[in-house]
Specification:
There is one protein chain. By secondary structure, this protein is of the alpha+beta class. The protein has one domain: Immunoglobulins (Immunoglobulin-like). It is 22% helix and 43% strand. The chain has two helices and ten strands. The strands form two sheets. Strands 1, 2, 3, 4, 7 and 10 form a six-stranded mixed β-sheet that branches. Strands 6-5-8-9 form a four-stranded antiparallel β-sheet, with no helix packed on it. It starts with a helix and ends with a strand.
């Protein structure tokens, strides 16, 4: 990737981030969604949203982060698939680097895809600090 392309990309990302910060309709709390018998919430873009999301952690029994690189840069817009006993129980795109899930007791496989590379982790209910790392 050329230096010019990197600079343009970085500028676009900064502009998009600034637009989100200035948006009067931006919610500090991410929206809870449902898939089958699961409830989930993802977010954490911006410090205010991250703190609001972390305050909801007590209501969920699974949690995971999506990060990239040696410094753990936060990722968003990662396609996620949750499996239980070999069956897909939820599919969604994570709107931020942190997701919490409320699920029936058990073991779940969380799969994410970023830059055409898949990562997966296995979580038992109660684990709220796992990482999908690229």
């Amino acid at each position: 990737m050329s230096i010019m392309h990197q600079a343009l990309r970085r500028g676009a990302l900064i502009g998009a981030f600034a637009a989100c910060l200035l948006s009067p309709t931006m919610s500090q709390a991410a929206q809870v969604r449902h898939a089958g018998n699961l409830s989930y919430v993802c977010g954490g873009v911006g410090e205010g949203e991250l703190h609001a999301l972390q305050a909801q952690a007590l209501h969920y029994n699974l949690g995971f982060w999506m990060v990239e690189g040696p410094r753990g840069a936060y990722l968003a817009d990662v396609p996620i698939r949750i499996r239980h006993q070999g069956k897909t129980v939820a599919e969604f795109t994570a709107g931020g680097p942190l997701c919490y899930v409320q699920a029936p007791a058990g073991t779940y496989t969380i799969e994410g895809t970023h830059k055409q590379q898949q990562r997966k982790i296995t979580l038992h209910t109660g684990n709220k600090n796992a990482y999908l790392r690229w």
